[in-house]
Amino acid sequence: MRGNITRRGKTSWRLKFDLGRDPATGRRRIRFITVRGKRQDAERELTRLLNAAHEAGSVEPSRLTIADYVRSWLDGADGISPKTLERYRQLAEQQIIPHLGAILLQKLRPAQVHDWHATLVRSGGKGGRALSARTVGHAHRVMHRALARAAALELVSRNVVSAVKPPRVEAQEIEILAGVQMADVLAKLEGHALHPIVAVALGTGARRGEVLALRWADVDLDGATLRIERSIEETGRGLLRFKEPKTRHGRRSISLPQSAIDALRAHRRRQLELRLALGMGRLESDSLVFATPEGEPLSPDNLSRDWRRAVTSRGLPRVMFHALRHSHASALIAAGLDVLSISRRLGHGSPTVTLTVYGHLFANKDGAAAAAIEAAMRTRVEP
What we know:
Elements: E1 2-7, E2 12-21, E3 28-36, H1 39-57, H2 66-75, H3 82-100, H4 110-123, H5 133-152, H6 179-188, H7 195-204, H8 208-212, E4 219-220, E5 225-228, E6 231-234, E7 240-243, E8 252-255, H9 258-277, H10 300-313, H11 323-334, H12 339-346, H13 351-358, H14 366-378
Antiparallel strand pairs: 1-2, 2-3, 4-5, 5-8, 6-7
Helix pairs in contact: 2-3, 2-5, 3-4, 3-5, 7-9, 7-11, 12-13
C-alpha cells in the first residue's frame, strides 16, 4: 500500500493512498482524505491510515469481526495519550467486545447499537450491575471513533453508530466550597504539605495535573502570575508523563491572588532549606514547584489520596480534590466576572464549555435585560 501528500492550503493537506485491488472487482482502491495542521500531522495520519488498512487487510473485510477490528484499531492508534488509550482499551474489553465483538463489522446495524445501549444500562457493569448513562456514553464514543476510521478506509459503507444517540446523562450538581469554606480549608491545612498545593488550586482553578506539572520557571511571584504550559498524567500502571495542553486555550497565564503568592513563597523557602540540608544545592529554573524531596514529580493519584486523608484527619468538607477547581470558578461567577474571562482562566476550549458546566451558577438577570431593552426602545433622537 502506498500514499502521498499534497498541500491544499496553508494548513490543509490531501492524503491519497492506495489500498490495493478490490478482490471482487479487481479495480484499484484509491482513497482521498483531507487533514488540517502541519505537514508532520499529515504524515502521521497517512502512516496511521496505511497501518490500519494493513492490519484490517489481514482479514477478509466481509469476515472481519468487531472484536478483531476494534483491537486492531487500538493497537495502531496514534495521537491518543497513554491514559486515554488505557481507558479506551478498558471500555473495549468490558463494554464493547463482550456484547458486540462477535458481530461482523460490515453487518452491524443501528438496531443492534440501540439494543447494546439498553443492555449496558441494564446490566453492563461488574457482576451484571446497572451501568451509568455516562459510562455508556463513553463506550459509545469509543465505538463511534473506531467506526469512523473504518468508514474512512471504506471497510464499512457508513458509521452506523452515528445513527443512534447514547443515553441521556442527567445533569448533576457539581461539588463546590463556599467562600467561607475556602478560607476555613486553608486555615485547617496550615502546616500540612498540602497547604501550598491547595492554595494554588483554589487560587488559580488549575487542574490537578497542571498544578503538579508547574516549574518554578512558570511562576512569577513578583509579577503575581503563573503560566500553564503542560500537565502531568498517570496511567493505571503508575507511569507518569508530561503532556502539552489539548488545545491552545489550555496554555495560558493566570494572575495569582495574594494568598497563593504567600503560600508559594513560604513553600519555596521550605523547599530550599530541605535541598540545602540534603546537599542538593539551589533550585534550578526547571525544578518542579511540587515534587518529592529528590525532585521527582508527584503522582496525581497519590495527591487525591492524600487529599481524602486530609479531609478526614483535618475535618475538611467532604469533596473531591477536583472540587477546588469548581470552587474557584464558582467564586469568580459570584463576583460577577464575565464568562469569557472565566473560560480563559480555566483553560476551556470555548465559553460554551464553561456555560455547560457552570451555567446554573450564573444568576438569572432576565429582569435587568428587560429594563435595558425598554430603555433602548424609549430612547429617541431629537430631529
